[in-house]
Structure formats: structure tokens, C-alpha cells
Amino acid sequence: MSDQGTTAWFVLLILVMTAGAITLYMTPAIVAFKRQHPHRIAILIVDLIFGATIIGWVGTLVWALITPRTADFALPVRMQGTGVRQEPSLAKAMKPCPSCAEDVLAAAQRCRFCGYDFAA
User: Fold this and answer.
1) Which residues does residue 94 pair with via DSSP β-bridges, in sequence order?
2) Looking at 13-17, 56-60, 107-111, which range is the least confident one?
3) How far apart are CA 49 and CA 64, in angstroms?
4) Which pLDDT score is estimated for 19?
5) Which stretches within 51-114 are classed as H helix?
6) Comparing 69 with 56, which gets the higher pLDDT?
7) Which residue stretches of the chain are H helix?
């Protein structure tokens, strides 16, 4: 094999290995952008700065894979003028117990906290 043929294959091998290394290095950022993660810019920046360390790379990959929770535990919102509370995430009407002031479902016949009977 000639020197030029060997050199061309060597340059091609170096380019392919470099592209693979960059892709591997940027995998956490790529995953974050593909998943439309709300913190994808921060993941990209942290990956660029700390991705060379194994801990930084694994940390940003885990961060990119975790989906942040948004309002899974929303507080009850009092509906205007009704005195009934509604859970935004569950859309269930709530009412306060007159005995213990805890919120219970509007259709409840007995308070699950104090045992107050709404039917009486």
C-alpha cells in the first residue's frame, strides 16, 4: 500500500473517531434537546464545562433523563364566590369541614379527618 493511501485512511479514521468522541461527549445535551427538557441550556453548559469528568458526564446524563415534575402537588384553589375549593390537577370540588376545617370532597357525607356527619 502506498504512503498516500495509508495517510488518507489514517485521516479518515481520525475524523470518524473525533466525530464519535464529540457525539459521546455531548450525549447528555443531545438527549436533553431531543426530550425538550426545560433545563436543556443549563444541561448543555454543565456538559461543556464538566463533561470531561466521568462524574460530570454521568450527572448531566441523569439530569437530562429525569423529567421534572410540574404541579403534581398543587394546592387547592378557592373558586371565586362559591366557598368550594377545587384541586387544579384533579379538578375535584372541595369543601371545608365545619368541625375541623379540613378540606374534603364536596360530595362527602362524612369528614374523613374528624368523622363529622354532613347529612345531620
Assistant:
1) 85, 105
2) 107-111
3) 15
4) 95
5) 54-65
6) 56
7) 3-25, 27-34, 40-50, 54-65
